[in-house]
Amino acid sequence: MDNLAKHLLQRLMRRIPASMLQSTLDKWGRLTAEKRKSLDFTQSKLTITQELVALCEESELTVKHITELEMIYDAHSVELMQFKEQFKSHLSELKRNVSVKIKKHTDEAVWIRVAWGDGLSRPNHLKATYVVHYLQTPYVFVNALSSKNKPLLLQALTLSTKHQQIKAANLSGQKLTALRDLLMRQYQQVFPTKYPSPLPESDQSISKLRIEKVQAEASANRHRMAGETFGDGMLPALQSAFFQLETKFKDPTNEAMTQRDEPFICSVKFSSSNLLESLRHCASSGIASTPVTPLLSSIPLKGRNYFVITDNVPNA
Amino acid sequence: MEGSRERTPHSGVVKRRSKSQSYRRSIRTCFGVASGLSLTPALTARRMNICRKAPRSQNITEKVKPEHLALLVKTEWQLSYVTPLYQFRHTQLKTYARQLSAFIAAEKQQGLAVEVGGLQNTFKVSFSVLQGLAETNDDPETVLIQVQSKPMFARQEDPPKTVWSGWLSCINGNPEYLQSLPKDFTCLPLFCSKGAEGLSSLVKSWLQRTFDCCFGPLDINQTTLQWLAALWTNCHMETNIQKLKMIWTLPVVPPLQVTYTVDSDDALELWRSTRESSAEKSRGAEDEVCIDFSEVTRFMQGLMSHFYRHFRVDLSAGELNQVSSALGSAKLNGKIKISSSRYLISIFSLLTECALLKMPI
């Protein structure tokens, strides 16, 4: 590595804030994973810079590569910087006396903490609202937001992320990571196959009873469809799903109710310590008939757990 | 309806007399009466009624003191059944109160953990009669037991706090069974308790050794829960029940709870439609309010089929755990709450019947 490259790198390192360092280097991709792992990001900036220079020399990187890194950082930081500034300014315009703190975590999540006050009182830090936004995604997670402040926050978010509209995703739960994994499908998916593999013939010497064979096939089918609908392995932990039903009552054995014009109003709430696993087990054990009804499969598919079902629009 | 019917004054229960014993036997096995009972004349009368008069809103504030009613409603009671009490006298209540106080104090000294509000408490017990709840001439009067606690260093003006209460009752008990009991026995099969578990055990213990009786848990089974769902929906004709809420649990891993809440007007319409299709509906005024269990079953099946149509999940694979409405709530583990005194008699008649079915003799 020549002196120009070293100099550029050192100058660049002075610009890049510590919180963005790791993700910027990851995006750059010019250093192998091992080399990146060997960097200790808890040290002082100066020490990290020295180590980084050493690593770049080892990898025989040139000025071209360093300029690449600079470009990546610029793009990355501008995006984040713009978002931060815009959000703060928009929110302050809408409401006086708010205290906003924004922090970016290494996993592309921007955490925002808003303490609300109004014209008369100071921001209340005991009842702060937390917002988490994953920069490259159109999703925002909000906690502890009062209905009074909701429109203000949503407007500030929409404008600062340069979108046109924000709407409720109808998904809520206790674990942020579970909601994120569900929305971004970061759990083991099972893709439907047209020709699933045949059942292994385990015991060819003893002829199986026909009933056993049919049951085993049915069971295997249920398991497969349950996996295709909900996923494999550990599923994100949702606690509940709520359906408001406003559909007509249809039962061939009950003419009086079937002829009614008005909908049959009722609501159903499913709750469990891990709702998706319970539902998957319902499907695989036959308690829920397969293929799984769209009402239930919408939960993982659309990443929602609040639904209003009417006759005209099946999934409002 | 065939056969004759017996009606006792103010009775909320109608029995159907059928002609053959084998029919009666089959009804008994249908409703889970303990098997292995010998068929003595007194026993054949005790079976879960498959036909019930709909609960009517009764203003019982004339029969029962409002302050007594206030003690009973809007609070959750744990249910148990108790076998007939030997040589129990309604005239000896003060003596019983003294004896039970002494018993509790003695047990506490022995180190039995009662753990209500600290170690320095003294307990005062009172026994009283809740007059007016007994419906028929055979029903003994309801007895209320209260345990009050007074901390050691309390001031004189501090009112003692009731830390435990329970009551024994028999409401619309089966007259044949009640009349068949030997003279010295008082049958108050329904025991409702509220408060620390330790005190419940002590009170039961004392009652057991003093009156030679036996206690057991009275679980509210699926049949009774279904009855309550239907009966409460029926009550919506007179009193707004707001919503009918039912909670099922499905046996999956992890267990899945399903809370199915139906708007009360829609539930009532469904209930009415199942009654209209009842083949045995006759025109007599009395018959209109008699509800058959098959109607209850059809009502539940209607609700479950609406559910299945949407979710393709069979609720009958699970267990109904709880039924509630504005009139009260009932849970599988034997907890009941009555929110309105107007239906107290009807619901507790049903529970008395359940308690009598549990009698081992």
TrEMBL record, chain B:
> What domain of life does the native source organism fall in?
Eukaryota
Main location group: nucleus
One Gene Ontology CC term in the entry:
nucleus
InterPro entries documented for this protein? CENP-L
The record's subcellular locations are:
Chromosome, Centromere; Nucleus
Q: Which Pfam families match?
A: CENP-L
Which UniProt keywords are present, listed alphabetically? Centromere, Chromosome, Nucleus
- Return the annotated region ranges for Disordered: 1-20
Q: Which family does it belong to?
A: Belongs to the CENP-L/IML3 family.
Name by which UniProt lists this protein: Centromere protein L
